[in-house]
Protein 1
Amino acid sequence: MLINTRTTLDKHTLEDLSHYLPHRRQEAEERLASLGPNAADVLINCVEDETYIHRRSRILSVIMGLFLMVGLVVVVILSSILVLAVFILSLVMMSDFHLNPEWIPLHGFDAIEENYFRRRPFSVAHRNALVALAKYDNVRALPVLLKAYAVYNTGIETECYSAIMRLCGKVTEQDSALFSPADRILLRNALSDPDSHFVCSILGVITKIGDEADIPALKNLTQLPVYSVGNKRVPVQAQKTLEAIKQRLVRKQEAQTLLRASGLNDPAEMLLRPQHSSPQEPANQLLHPLQDSTRKE
């Protein structure tokens, strides 16, 4: 659940982070610094709020575009049917015309321009929140910056790229719980980036937090054709990452096998039992206490 960031960092403050007046920028930076250690979390929530608003506006634009496209399709189809009907009727009415049963193709309509659904740029507040977030060394910001870099058209790809490369080196195995399934999908999709340095950094993250869902993508990278020296690093790093994930999965499976509780239907020979001692010695070979008679001098 998102916290209410508007009470601590409103939209005007985010917009003033890139204001042309120096004192306005300084006041905004001071308000951001006054948040202390919670500044990164507040910025993450601001980015998520702005992302939701941006996505909602995109969905509305797409719905309006679809309605327009459907309307154009209906109009063109009706017009084509009308023209075809008039043409056939005119041919039938001609006495010296023998109707050719061949297929008469319908002329379709021109495709709607692909850029009609071009992603709109983010607002100033959204962009400034991302720029400020990119300055923090908080691993939680990595999925947010990765989404801004790979999915949306923010105009600050350079800042996001530098922050992602820096944060990738700070991820540890203990940070695995910070990455949701959607975040892991973003990491796998980032493996198709043409920048080999960027891909190797993402592979470093997957090496530490990856699971069995990453194995197919890693196998595809190991079979990647080599076009340059930089490109050669990707299959090698992908193979190392694949081996590390497989070893971690084996260790996890072994741990689960050793700590597995016995079930009601488990065979008796599979249950843990105390180790048997050596065969019991005969009674006459065991040590006995001395008799009273042997103690007399």
Protein 2
Amino acid sequence: MGCYSSSPRSLGEFMKMNITRWQPDTCKCIIEYEWDGDADPTTRTHSVVNTIPCEFHTKHSNHEEVFEDVKAENTRKNVVINELNKEVDWEYDDKRELKIDLSSLSEAEKIDARDKLSRHEKVKEWQKS
């Protein structure tokens, strides 16, 4: 799991901003982003303050690009793992392709997993890109 810490900072009387330091479990990047602690969690936005990119994400020219790429990789992994609903090993390779190890599953579970993933809208979208 990623490492999370949050500390509030005040911007006057009306807005309390929090800064969170996040290290995802998909790479070794460290990302600091701020968000309004008083905003509705379903609609609030996160603004990148700083990033320390890992070796795979140094290609990006700014903090926002690092954050968006890391967030996309993390989302991809979470969608796949949640859809499988099984304990499986996974990793991103040097090309940043998600590799899922299904060897712990029975043949029937493997077929079911491939079928579920092939029908998932997000997975279809990623396969096109």
